[in-house]
Amino acid sequence: MPRRNLDSLVTQVASELMGVDATTMVAASERVLASLVDYFDVEFAYLRHTEREQRQTVLIAEWPPRPYVPDPDPLRVIDFAEADSLFLASENAVEPIIVSRGDEYPDYQEMIRQSTGMPSMVTACVPLISRGVSTGALGFVRRGDRAWTTREVNVLKAIAALFAQLQARVEAEDRLRYIASHDDLTGLANRRALLEHMEERLAPGNAGPVATFFLDLDRLKALNDFLGHNAGDNFIRTLAARLRKNFAPEDMIARLGGDEFVIVPAETMDAVAAELEANRIQELVGRRVSVGQESVSRGVSVGVALGVPGETTVSDVLRRADHALLSAKSGGGNGIAVFTDAMRVQFELQDDVEVNLRTAVSDGSMVLHYQPEVDLRTGRIVALEALVRWQHPTRGLLPPGAFVAVAEATNLAGELGRWVIRSACSQFADWRRRGLAANVVIRINVSPVQLVSADFVERIEDILRLYGIDGSSVCLEITEHVVVQDLVRTRLTLRGLKRMGVQIAIDDFGTGYSSLSHLKALPVDAVKIDRGFVQRLGDSDDDLAIVKSIIGLAGSFGLGVVGEGVETPMAARTLVGLGCYRAQGFLIARPMPGEAVEAHLREGRIPLDLDLPRAGRGVASS
Ligand code: C2E
Ligand code: MG
Ligand code: MG
Hints:
By secondary structure, this protein is α/β, with parallel strands linked by helices. The strands form 4 sheets. The chain has an 8-stranded mixed beta barrel with strand order 14-15-17-18-19-20-21-22, surrounded by 5 helices. A 6-stranded antiparallel beta sheet has the order 3-2-1-6-5-4. Helix 1 packs parallel to helix 5 (150-181), helix 7 (220-227) packs across helix 8 (229-245) and helix 15 packs parallel to helix 17. The chain is elongated and about 125 Å long. The chain starts with 5 loop residues before the first helix and ends in a 19-residue tail after the last helix. Mean pLDDT is 88; it is low at 618-622. Ligand C2E is lined by residues 371, 387-388, 399-401, 404, 417, 420, 445-447, 477, 507-508, 531, 564-567, 584-586, 591. Ligand C2E binds next to strand 15, helix 13 and strand 19.
């Protein structure tokens, strides 16, 4: 800044500081100090800010730079309580302090001498004033004597005011930035700050892999419900503070809301190291927390994913970590899972299914396989269960487990279900016309959504009429869950179906929560014992007891029973011994395409060599 008159000096400083923000504040202040040093012909100048709460004064800028700055720098942060007399006087000063002789404030003089090597200084210390209180100081130091004219002092006050304004603006900006990037409850970073941080970490050229830990507290809701929301909040705050304390300041810890946290350590780590770290996190979170009178602890599930800078996007890493978290939680909580290639395959499949399912349902990619159900005593085929598959263009034949849930979650269940019912009925009618399947029932699985759709009964009626099938040759299989969820609605639909003679079976029985008495209220014909119980018949006494009681209760309610998942002769013999004759399973036949099942239908039976005791044989009556 060229030498000018005093008034234009103020204007000059004002324009210099106008566009300044937090990032440019120090450099701009130094530029201004440099021109002031020059203008007032002093040895050096400094700008300090006051941290009122901590009672500290912090060096922001100085000019010229000191040739040697000790580390730590005794001038950077000074506690007022321990400061020399001049600094102490400046803490609350609202008027400039002018030291015009070298013998005032001797301790201050001594301090300056020690840190600058210059003896006997004169000083002008001009407070920065904001809302009537001192928020810092602008200081000028000069060797030998120097008198300050009133005009000069007034100009310095005006310049100090400009610095005070800048300080207030930067602090307000800082505060805004803080609010925008921090979680209210815990003071941890929020989602936005996390995304920004990850974006930087995953930029090309950065060190990797970048490990991301997705945390989800187990059963936090129970804590809120039983101890109150305040307790829940306190718990989360305490946990947040604990995490913060046990991680380095440069590690990112964010709370995404509720009981979800994400940690991205600054250190790079591979999968092995990340799993160890996940264990450490789990141990940390699992320690007890005092909430009011109670001492509580929560387990935490941790999903881990690694991102490679330049390759993986932020949303990929977060989705993977979230996916791993799901898998970690699936074990009932307090689990750890690192995103693996196997998960990736499943993940891609899920994406693919979501994208392509809609067209697949309408473009003929769906096929039905049929699994025979026999009377174990004679091998006679009593029913065929239609099981849907997706002939995927690149992934081969997909089982329903890979897409039925997706269909249900994406409003496609109705469309898929209609296709299944129409195709199964059409195929079944064709067999009937050709004299096959005369005494066989066609079993069709129905999604819960279908069952509660308003026109379900009419649609079935239309299809049966179209193909000339009597209702009693059709059995719809519904899951236990739907029965429990919407008993009233379900009952209405089932009654409508019953009027047409359509049979109803409860599938996978034993896995839901319905008691048989629940079912008594519904017009149900049979239950299919879940294959989980049947598979191990012969070596699990528990399962034997359950199967026995299901069969007994079904009998007393007059319901039929079918054993699913018969894989061993032992299981088949056990079922027969318990009086359950109808069964389905790999031992008897796997699900197969329509053409293959035709051969069995022609025979009418599937011979089984079960070596049954005499009493178990005889002619099927079911
Ligand atoms: P589900 O109705 O209980 O069907 C029986 C499942 O058990 C079939 O699996 C069958 O292949 C399998 N299975 C049969 N015998 C054995 C055995 O001995 N051992 C073992 N381990 N498994 C056996 P799939 O075809 O994968 O179907 C799975 C589930 O998908 C079905 O269970 C059913 O709930 C659902 N599903 C199948 N087709 C449809 C459909 O068209 N619509 C709806 N909504 N769901 C369907
Ligand atoms: Mg079924
Ligand atoms: Mg089943």
